[in-house]
Amino acid sequence: MTDRYFRKGFGLKQEILGTLTNDYHSHLVNRIREQGGTLTVEDLTFRLAKEFGFCYGVDRAVEYAYESRKKFPDRRIFLVGEIIHNPHVNAKLESMGIAIILPDGDGRFDFSGITAEDVVLIPAFGVQVRDLHLLRESGSVLVDTTCGSVLNVWKRVERYARDGFTAVVHGKHYHEETRATVSQVTKNPDGRYLVVRHMPEAEILCGFIRGEETVSRMRETFGHKVSSGFDFEHDLERVGVANQTTMLAGESLAIAAKLREAMTARHGAEHLDAHFRTFDTICSATQERQDALLDLIEEPLDMMIVIGGYNSSNTSNLASIASRKVTTYHIADATCIDAETGNIRHKPVGVDQEVVKEQWLGDGARCLGITAGASTPNNKIGEAIERVLQTRALDLPTEAT
After folding, report:
1. Which of these, 73, 99, 190, 212, has the minimum number of CB atoms within 10 Å of its CB?
2. Which are the catalytic amino acids?
C-alpha cells in the first residue's frame, strides 16, 4: 500500500457499519434465516436458498466505497464503471456524490478529466491493464476493490502466457471481468487468448483442434474475441483453460473436459501435459450459491424467484439453473411485481428483454423458492417477498416483520 494506492480499505468499517446496515440489510430476511429458511403466511410458503445475496467480494467492494467517501469527504470520487451489477447499489453510490464513468461501445473509458486531487474506485470486476496504467499516470488516489477470486484468475492466465500457453477463457467476451482478465495476457508480448462463451462454441473449438473444423469457421466464431494477430493454426498448439468467476461451474468443468479430450486426441495422452493445462477458477461464493440452489430445487416448489440485476452474470446463471427444474421468474427487484394487477415483469432465460406474465401467482397454496445473485442486497430480497404477500393481500406475522 502507498498513499496513492489502497487495496485494504482505510480501517473505517466500524464508522460506516451503521449506514451499510440501514442501506442494505433486511430484518425480514434475517428472521427467515433464523427460522430455518422458511416463511409460511396462510397459503404461501417461501423457502430461501441456504446461500444467496452479497458475497464477500461484493461486501468488500461496497464497504470500501463507503469508506472512501468517509475518508475523502471533500474530494471528487469517480468509479470506473459499475462497482457491481446491481442498479440500486450503483444509484446509492451516485447519491453519495460518487460519479460513475461509463465506457464507450469498445469498452474504453475517458479518464482525461481526472486529476491528482481526485479519488478513483476500481470495481470488483477489476479494470484492464491499459486502464490501470492510465489511472496511475493521472496521479489520483486509487482504491482497488478487485475481488480476490478475480485476481486468482489473472495470476493463472499470466502464468499461461509466460509459459507459452494460449489462455482459453470460458466467459462473456464483453463482460468487464473477462475484458480485464484477458488484458492480463497482453502483459507478455507473446501472450494469446481466446474466449469461449458456452459449450456449442467449445465444440467448434474442439472440432478444430481435432482437425474437423476450418480456419474460416474459427474466424467466424471467434474472430472478435481473440487476441490481436491470433493465428488459429499455430496458437492452439498449447492451451490453458480458465474462466470468468461467475459462469456456470458445471459448464466450465465440462468445457475443460472437452478440451482435454480434444488435445489428447491431437497430441496423445503421453504428451498432454506439454500441450494442455486447466485450473478451476470459479469463485467459491458462485459455487456455493449454485450448489444451494440445486439443493433447493430438489424440494417440491411451485416456482422460483431469482432476484438481481439483469446484467449480472452470476444472477442470470442462477435463473438458468432453476429454470431447468421449475417455473422461474428472474426479476430485477420488487417493482417488477405488481400487487394490484397480479402481473409480474421478468426476464426469461435466453431472452434479452423483460416480458409480462399475467396472474403469475395464481390461486391456492403456493410454495416459492427464493434466491438472489451475489450482487443483490438483502433489503431487495425482503422487499420482493413483501410484494408477493401484497399480491395476495397478506400481512407478515408480527414476529416476521
Report:
1. 73
2. 177
